[in-house]
Amino acid sequence: METSMTTAAYTPATERMGWFSRTEAWLDSKGKGAWIAAMVLGFVFFWPVGLALLFYMIWSKQMFGKSCRTRTSHGPSMRFHASRSSGNSAFDAYKADTLRRLEEEQENFEAFLQRLREAKDKAEFDQFMEDRARQASKARTEAEDREDA
Q1: CB 53 within 8 A of CB 38
Q2: In terms of CB atoms within 10 Å, which end of the chain has fewer, N or C?
């Protein structure tokens, strides 16, 4: 009678591994969800085990390793996909016109924001100069009042 193991992670190489290494390999093969489930079960049954798993996941970068690196911004890669041809010339012409119009609107909006910032800066500077002139004239009148007295 032949017995076979049902786990796919059990190979001759894993025979030499300890129980901890085999468990880690098995959880790694199942993904981040398995690690989180093991941590939650550890907290439910015996909280120090859950806490130990949480620290291990953070220490070994299991928790934050791959998810943060795989995120991409919608920068140049998004533009590359937008410039690909769909095979439909009418749609491609419409898409090119729409993208051109959106880029023009974006440039106009950025120019508007720049003018708005410049106007705000000018208003703040004018207010500063008025306050400074007011303080100077006030100091001048106080000095004249002291001389007269």
Answers
A1: yes
A2: N
Residue 116 backbone class (left: φ over 0; alpha: ψ -120 to 50; beta: rest): alpha
Helix (H, G, I), strand (E, B) or coil at 87: coil
Is-contact 9 22, C-beta < 8 A?
A: yes
Q: How far is CA 70 from CA 32, 64, 65, in A?
A: 14, 11, 9
Residues 112, 59: Cα–Cα separation, whole Å? 48
Residue 2, both tokens: 């032949």
pTM (whole model) above 0.85: no
- The end-to-end CA distance of the chain, in Å, is 121
Residue-by-residue pLDDT tens, the chain, 149 positions: 444 444 445 555 545 668 777 888 888 888 888 888 888 988 898 888 888 888 888 887 655 555 433 444 445 544 555 667 888 899 999 999 999 999 999 999 999 999 999 999 999 999 999 999 999 999 888 888 888 76
DSSP state of 16: S
